[in-house]
Design a protein that fits this description.
The strands form three sheets. Strands 3, 4, 5, 6, 7, 14 and 15 form a seven-stranded mixed beta sheet that branches. Strands 10-9-8-11-12-13 form a six-stranded parallel beta sheet, sandwiched between helices. The protein has a two-stranded antiparallel sheet with strand order 1-2. Helix 2 (129-142) crosses helix 3 (158-169) and helix 2 (129-142) crosses helix 8. It folds into two domains: 3-123 and 303-332, Medium-chain alcohol dehydrogenases, catalytic domain (Quinone Oxidoreductase, Chain A, domain 1); 129-278, NAD(P)-binding Rossmann-like Domain (Rossmann fold, 3-Layer(aba) Sandwich). The chain is an alpha/beta fold and 333 residues long. Strand 14, helix 9 and strand 15 form a beta-alpha-beta unit. It has helices spanning 49-52, 129-142, 158-169, 181-190, 204-211, 225-232, 262-267, 284-296, 313-322; strands at 3-9, 22-28, 36-45, 67-74, 84-87, 94-98, 110-111, 149-153, 173-178, 195-198, 216-221, 235-243, 271-274, 304-308, 328-332. It is globular. Bound molecules: NADP nicotinamide-adenine-dinucleotide phosphate. NADP nicotinamide-adenine-dinucleotide phosphate binds at residues 47-49, 52, 130, 133, 154, 156-160, 178-180, 183, 222-223, 244-248, 275-277, 320-321, 323, 325, 329.
Amino acid sequence: MSKARKFVITRLFKGEPKVSDFKLDSEDIPVLQDGQILCEAEFISVDPYQRAYTEGHGVGRTMIGSQVARIVESRADGYPAGRYVVGAWGWRDRTVVDVANADKDFLLPILVPDLGGLPLSLSLGVLGMPGATAYFGLLDICDPKPGEVVVVSGAAGAVGSIAGQIARIKGCRVIGIAGSDVKVKWVKEDLGFDQAFNYKTVNLDKALKEVAPDGVDVYFDNVGGEQSSAVIANMRHRGRIAVCGCISVYNESQVAVAPVIQMHVVSRELRMEGFVVARWSGRWDEAFRELGPWIREGRLKYRETVTDGFVNTPQAFIGMLRGENLGKAVVKV
Ligand SMILES: NC(=O)c1ccc[n+]([C@@H]2O[C@H](COP(=O)([O-])OP(=O)(O)OC[C@H]3O[C@@H](n4cnc5c(N)ncnc54)[C@H](OP(=O)(O)O)[C@@H]3O)[C@@H](O)[C@H]2O)c1
């Protein structure tokens, strides 16, 4: 009987996760039954939600996460061997998926369409969940208009780098915020952001007042905390804020304190809306139908930070949380 490798949690995370919080384990792969497929992971995705969604964590449980995998054996209609699928089966290299009984919204494998020569790993990035997040979070919630000023935090990451470029394609003036000079240079020089700032070295309030003296119309918030308070304090009347995530606090065990924003929200009549990308789960294809051609036309650029080897998945995850990634962080199994 062949084996599957998986990472299980040995200790619940306290602060930043550690390599020693995980253990590489294995299990037997059962003989395939009717309605099942056997998948071999090609790329594992490491994402911030894997730190934030602590309800999915447990000692002895397989670490949560999604992957793009090849179907190597199939006894399920519509899922032929050789096709690639995206599934949320956690950090494991081989998985038997009961397609017939899979939960429709979560565990059901999504067949990867023909990517027209683009890399398979993009189905975990710009042509996957992060791309859909950037697209719907920006366009559906903020409805940016040409000429408006859009600020994106986490600007050099998987979601932020795409959200900022979509805003630019829509004719907005885009300001990015990221955590290193290399990232700032990348989003300005390669991705075409109009301005970008390193939040670790720049006073954001001051910087925004200089580059956007009339205020910010749209804020796509990936990080929360003090950075977001600074942006919100610089919004224009009737500005829109899409709250995508708050990675600045995911490793915190105590509630973080940031400057109060309510006075700005009230006096400038701001609209602030949180979202989860699953809201548009039936419509992700709409996003990919626009994002794909933009990539091929060279209007939308992507970058991946690829860690080699399944055994290095914990390091890739920790590195992503530390900000070591440019663009989407993935593990090549
Ligand atoms: N709502 C949804 O449905 C949805 C879906 C996907 C993702 N998200 C959220 O979107 C955000 C970005 O996700 P992603 O997948 O694109 O990850 P990512 O930006 O590719 O990677 C995480 C980045 O977070 C930044 N970071 C780490 N600690 C930080 C801190 N203390 N303050 C500010 N930034 C920090 C790092 O960049 P720096 O070097 O710039 O610090 C790091 O590279 C996350 O908050 C995530 O939870 C939400």
